[in-house]
Design a protein that fits this description.
single chain, 122 residues, mainly alpha, 7 helices, 0% strand, elongated
């Protein structure tokens, strides 16, 4: 089988502007385009994440921290088992931590500006 040229491999690795990865990336309004692209790359490369996992985890962690009875959370007993509704907020925070550790310092600062105040409030 013939070998592909390195230039061809690099071209095939680039994302087309209408790529489903770019269309379905997270839509966190406070983040820059570069941070969104970095999050999309991380979500595609990690087996424990899915496209939009960071946005969903941030919303779930935000909802959990802002409720008055968040310390009484007992898990999914009687829940609907839909991640966006009744997902585990501690697991969502772990997902956010994994993304934060994988990002560049600039992107990490942007995402931490959203996660940090929630952690301080918790």
């Amino acid at each position: 089988m013939p070998r592909r040229r390195p230039g061809r491999v690099r071209v095939e690795g680039r994302l087309h502007p209408r790529s489903p990865y770019l269309a379905s990336r997270s839509k966190i309004p406070e983040l820059s385009v570069a941070a969104h692209a970095e999050i999309a790359r991380i979500e595609r490369s990690r087996s424990y994440l899915w496209v939009g996992a960071t946005e969903t985890s941030l919303l779930l962690w935000d909802k959990f921290v802002r409720t008055a009875d968040h310390r009484l959370w007992v898990g999914n007993r009687g829940g609907c088992w839909v991640w966006e509704c009744c997902g585990d907020p501690y697991l969502a925070r772990d997902f956010l931590e994994g993304v934060l550790l994988s990002m560049s310092p600039r992107g990490r600062r942007e995402l931490w500006a959203l996660v940090g105040p929630l952690d301080a409030r918790y």
